[in-house]
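Tokens in:
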């Protein structure tokens, strides 16, 4: 199996787990606030990955992990991961699973912008059209007569920006520190600590409450935070940020389907059209540059 095929399988598997985890995230705040749930799931992700780190990478990374630049990178991706997860939880308080998931995958369009403005990467003209289509699809998803839903949708859009930065910086970090298990494990630990601080200030953090939401927290922690974030990094090992982002966007499709089946969060015809438009936009934004490269020998 080639490295790119392996990364592709990892990326698709990651998207499936992320999509299904939206259900656990939505159901896991009966007794815990957003920051507390975020802390719990990320810390469980850290605990899940520790054995793998100790067995496969610990000896290799010992002389490298405490280098100043690596510490800065860990703090950065940990902060981005924490904010991305926390904002997802807040969005789920105000809007449904499908809206949160679909607005989250706006990161697919945002990734090229992050790459361009921060790292001078070229932006293909197709991205502008993709943004317009995405915005129109978002309008179809938003219930304008429900102010709470609009708040949740807005939070999910901001959340997408953090995921876009996270995807770009993970790819850059892998170029200088190619240890996927270590990156996945340490980022979960740091991200959980970033979430714990506001949880202690603004929420009632109690182990008994976390146990009451235990099943949902374990699913989101062990699978979505531990295994899926590791699959994400393996996926980004051999795939560029923009192409891999479109694969990750499948989480929006999976989340909408699971939300409809499990939570009975009905998708009417207008919302389905909105989802299809956004998916078309993100796919178009990735395929158009490839077509130009093949036909004209340019990007």
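Residues out:
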């Amino acid at each position: 199996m080639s490295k790119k095929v392996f990364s592709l399988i990892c990326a698709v598997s990651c998207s499936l787990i992320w999509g299904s985890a939206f259900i656990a995230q939505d159901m896991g705040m009966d007794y815990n606030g957003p920051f507390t749930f975020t802390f719990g799931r990320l810390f469980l992700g850290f605990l899940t990955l520790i054995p793998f780190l100790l067995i496969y990478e610990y000896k290799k990374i010992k002389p490298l992990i405490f280098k100043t630049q690596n510490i800065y990178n860990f703090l950065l991706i940990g902060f981005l991961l924490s904010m991305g997860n926390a904002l997802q939880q807040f969005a789920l308080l105000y809007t449904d699973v499908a809206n949160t998931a679909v607005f989250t995958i706006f990161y697919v369009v945002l990734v090229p912008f992050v790459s361009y403005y921060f790292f001078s990467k070229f932006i293909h003209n197709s991205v502008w059209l993709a943004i317009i289509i995405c915005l129109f699809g978002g309008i179809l998803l938003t219930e304008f007569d429900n102010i709470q839903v609009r708040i949740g949708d807005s939070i999910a859009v901001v959340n997408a920006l953090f995921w876009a930065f996270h995807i770009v910086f993970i790819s850059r970090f892998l170029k200088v520190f190619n240890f996927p298990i270590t990156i996945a494990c340490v980022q979960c630990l740091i991200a959980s600590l970033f979430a714990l601080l506001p949880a202690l200030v603004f929420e009632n953090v109690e182990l008994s409450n976390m146990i009451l939401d235990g099943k949902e927290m374990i699913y989101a922690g062990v699978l979505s935070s531990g295994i899926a974030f590791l699959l994400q990094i393996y996926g980004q090992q051999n795939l560029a940020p923009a192409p891999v982002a479109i694969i990750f966007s499948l989480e929006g499709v999976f989340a909408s389907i699971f939300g409809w089946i499990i939570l009975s969060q009905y998708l009417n015809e207008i919302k389905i059209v909105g989802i299809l438009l956004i998916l078309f936009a993100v796919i178009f934004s990735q395929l158009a540059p490839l077509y130009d490269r093949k036909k004209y020998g340019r990007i």
